[in-house]
Amino acid sequence: MPAPDRLPEFESVALPLLPDLYRTAAAMLRNETEAKDLVQDVYLHAWKSFHRFAAGTNCRGWMFQILFHRLHHTRRKLLRFRLLSEDEQFREDHLVAETPVPTRLSSEEVLAALDELSPEHREVVLLADVEELTCREVSEVLGIPMGTVMSRLSRARTKLRVTLAGPAADLGIGQARGSR
Amino acid sequence: MNFDCSQVRPLLDSYLTNELQVETLHAVNQHLQSCAGCRVALQSRERTRAALQATVRGLLPGDELTALVRDSVRAEAARRVGVRWLWMAVAVAAALTLVLALGWKEFRAEQAQILARLGLGKGDHIFCARGGFFPDDLPTPAVMREQVGAEYAPLVDQVIARAKGYVIRDGHLCHWQEREFVHFILERENKLISLVIVRKHSPDEVFPRQALLSTMRMEGHPVYTNADNGMAIAGLDTGRHLAFTVSERGPAEGLTLLAALTPSLPR
Q1: Each residue of B124-173: pLDDT tens digit?
Q2: Cβ separation of A23 and B60 shorter than 8 Å?
Q3: Closest by Cβ to A7, choosing from B9, B77, B164
Q4: Which of A58-62, A73-77, A93-97, B259-263 shows the highest mean pLDDT?
Q5: Is residue A102 part of a domain?
Q6: pLDDT tens across B49-71, in order?
Q7: Alpha-carbon distance B257 to nearest alpha carbon in chain A (angstroms)
């Protein structure tokens, strides 16, 4: 446990990261209350192990590490996901012509597309494309090899594009849905 | 190097995030100039990334969550302080044991030694900071480096980096009772905190060897404390120097500042 006099230091380095952690939790769990509970849980754990955190090192990466550790170990049942059907998997692997993603997308459409990803794909795409962590940092946060991060990221991005491109993409042909 | 579409498509995400090596980047750029299909594919990736960022970054926690998190962490820390009181009780018991072992006279002598050492920091703070011996205009880091001299100049950047939230009113060398002090005067909400460092006269100028009389340890050094006339004084022995914080903002801020700066203090 850290000494109580380190509380101001903890608050100054960790609290500014709260919006980043919350949005990742909210996008993973898709439930506001669960996301808030998780973030609170993460901060309590972070404080209790703050004496192990080396000042001047990557606090953001450390906090994300705790977030995904708590998410994986205590809340896996809450993660909503579905497995890709064999048909979808085949199309993703063999898509030859890309359907352009529409120029206008609503938040609901994007969140729905994110929901279509498995938790393993969702977490890498959130960390790499929204939080802009490098592949090495994502690998450290999630505790998985770099190669796994890169392959999951590639599949997640493809799947997102295919979903966002809309019904035409289901046919596997390069037909734009058009802007709305 | 000439690339076709099947080679370029898998590289477009890395192209977007500037992760390609120079030669590959050049080849992808060349291909994009002549291939409308790959340009459309690139735009799709840009749109997907931008839409994802805008949507997820729009999921905001609300102010109440920040307050809730802060309160729960503080409550946890306070619970820890409760445990700390228990340790303090143990420390008091240890001090009593020490009194019995050393005898009252020697115990008082050690206490007097602590107060004498802490008096160096307190005295310089009263003389210089309370006395107002610092300029109205804030000095630049370069001016402070020059004022404290080459040996202590690196400390200026450390104080600036680690004393976040404070205005640094001055960093200088000052003299009190024929001794020279390195003195940083910090201010927050019109109250001052001094960081005072003094080179030892001799190797014997130490705090008591009985660390049981200390409040805590920082980087392995026992820290001794005292409260006097609205000032919370904390001091430690770094080897060739004695270092102090004198806080008019309560003991916690003085100790926090001393803890933050201990790794940078001259030995």
Answers
A1: 998 888 877 788 789 999 999 999 999 999 999 999 988 888 999 999 99
A2: yes
A3: B77
A4: A58-62
A5: yes
A6: 999 999 999 999 988 898 889 88
A7: 9
Q: Is B16 exposed, middle or buried (0-12, 13-18, 19+ CB in 10 A)?
A: middle
CA B180 to chain centre: 25
| Residues of chain B neighbouring A47 (CB-CB closer than 8 A) | 73, 76-77
pLDDT tens-digit profile of A116-169?
999 999 999 999 999 999 998 999 898 889 999 999 999 999 899 989 887 544
A28-64 core/surface letters (b: 16 or more CB in 10 A; e: else): bbbeeebbbebbbbbbbebbeebeebeeeeebbbbbb
Token look-up 């102010």 returns B63
Whether residues A104 and A148 share a domain: the answer is yes
Is the residue at A140 inside a domain?
yes
CATH number at residue A147: 1.10.10.10
SS3 B174: strand
Cα→Cα distances A130→A15, A24, A124, B17, B117, Å: 19, 9, 10, 12, 54
A12 with A74, same domain?
yes
A11 touches chain B (CB under 8 A): yes
Homologous superfamily (CATH) for B104-264: MucB/RseB, C-terminal domain (3.30.200.100)
Query: In this structure, are residues B234 and B245 in contact, taking their beta carbons and an 8 Å threshold?
Result: yes
**Residue A128: C-alpha distances to residues A89, A95, A115, B84 (Å):** 22, 23, 17, 42
Q: Is residue A178 part of a domain?
A: no
- On the question of pLDDT at A177 being above 80, the answer is no
Q: Which of residues 33-72 of A touch B (CB under 8 A)?
A: 36, 39-40, 43-44, 47-48
Residue owning tokens 């190797």 = B203
Report yes or no on A145 lying in a domain. yes
With an 8 Å Cβ cutoff, is A24 touching chain B? Answer: yes
Q: What is the CATH number of the domain that holds A56?
A: 1.10.1740.10
Instruction: Using the 3D structure, point to which of A78, A107, A124 is the last residue of a domain.
Output: A78
- Residue A93 is part of which domain span? 86-171
ipTM: 0.84
Half-sphere exposure of residue A6: CA atoms within 13 angstroms, side-chain side: 20
Q: Report how many domains make up chain A.
A: 2
* Minimum-distance CB partner of B69 among A39, A48, A114: A39
Does B48 contact A48 at a Cβ distance shorter than 8 Å?
no
